[in-house]
Amino acid sequence: MLFWIIVVAIAAVVAIMLLLPLWRSAPAVQEDRNDMTIYKDQLAEVERDLARGVLNAEEAERTRTEIARRLLAADQAEQSATPKAPRTPAIVMSVIAFGLLIAGTAYGYWSLGAPGYPDMPQKARIEFGREMRENRISQEEAESLIDQSAFPPVEAPQDYIDMVAQLREIVPTRPDDLQGWALLARHEAALGNYVAARVAQQELVTRKGADATQGELTTLADLMVGAANGFVSPEAETVLRTLVDRDPDDIAARYYFGLLYGQTDRPDLAFRLWREVVESGSDAPYVEWARSQIMEAAQLAGADYELPSLRGPTQDQINDAAGMDAESQAAMIQGMVDGLSERLATEGGSAAEWAQLISALGVLGQTDRAAAIWGEAQQVFAGRDDALAQIRNAAISAGVAE
């Protein structure tokens, strides 16, 4: 209430300062009226002087003529003077302006501020965020709150659906079949059954224990967050901490930890983590997810941040290419391909850029170069199955995968 009293008081002061000119009288009119009163008094004084013999009749007549002339001029000035603003319009304008000022102030605070939110210093906010993280609901509780029927079913061939149904029946009867659990998790996810996929992947990771790979743990984290509709549960956090313990620079863990902090009133930490993800140069999907959220986190954290642009042709290059003939466009594309090839050879790059180069060479019909790049990529990305899968798809489309 004190806040709103102060706001209204400040608005009232500002309104008065703005509207004060509407209430002021026209000074010229008042001055003309004072002059007329003086001239009338002077005429009376002339009559008294004439009666006392101070002035003779001729002097009195000249004086009366001069005063009458000035009195007439003052009367004419009063008639032609600009009158002061009518009082009723001034009152109406004052009320409208004051109302707009109050309404604008209230709307601005309601849309940009936090009505009803108590003053919270930094120490209290940090403590509040910690309590939010400690009191989160579990993974299963989060999943139970999601209306799974609201998600449209994934269209798939009937024989594929029947195959997954058979996996659901067979895999639980062979609990030590790790490959079976991995297949079940993968195909449940493909059908959009994220809860079932999470359960299968968790079974796989639990049975493998310390032998679970970084990729298997990352898949589990993906499925846990996906099954909870983006919520990072305490169980998902445990998986993420395992990822970080193994690799402090793990992109997936950094992204999901940023998501966790963003959900628990710590946009400053979310921004810091997402910035590392965005600027990592990785081609993982977490980079795009972080890019889509980092600006809001930066604004909430009070950070002045400019999102780095993605590598690729500039808008000017695209506009130039649009106006070229086919031969010129081909030459321009060849130049861009050569530039990308040289940069990858000297500086390296992401799997997406290697795949882009192979695809472009395939389109240009330079299959020998595409095959050579594909062979080099297999050495550069050895052991990185996800990256190789992306590049292999490009090699297949270029016809050089075999």
Largest sheet, in brief, is:
none
Oligomer: single chain
Strand content: under 5%
Number of helices: 19
Structural class by helix and strand composition: mainly alpha
- What percent of the residues sit in helical stretches (DSSP H or I)? over 70%
User: How large, in whole angstroms, is the Cα Rg?
Assistant: 41 Å
Number of DSSP strand runs: 0
Output the helix-strand order: HHHHHHHHHHHHHHHHHHH
> Which residues sit in consecutive blocks of at least 5 with pLDDT less than 50?
26-30
Chain-averaged pLDDT? 81
Shape estimate: elongated
Span of the ends, CA to CA: 75 Å
Observed structural traits:
19 helices; about 400 residues; mainly alpha
What report would you give on this structure?
It is a single chain. The chain is mainly α and 402 residues long. The protein has helices at residues 2-23, 27-52, 57-80, 87-112, 122-134, 139-144, 158-170, 178-190, 194-208, 214-227, 234-246, 251-263, 267-278, 285-301, 315-322, 326-346, 351-363, 367-380, 385-398.
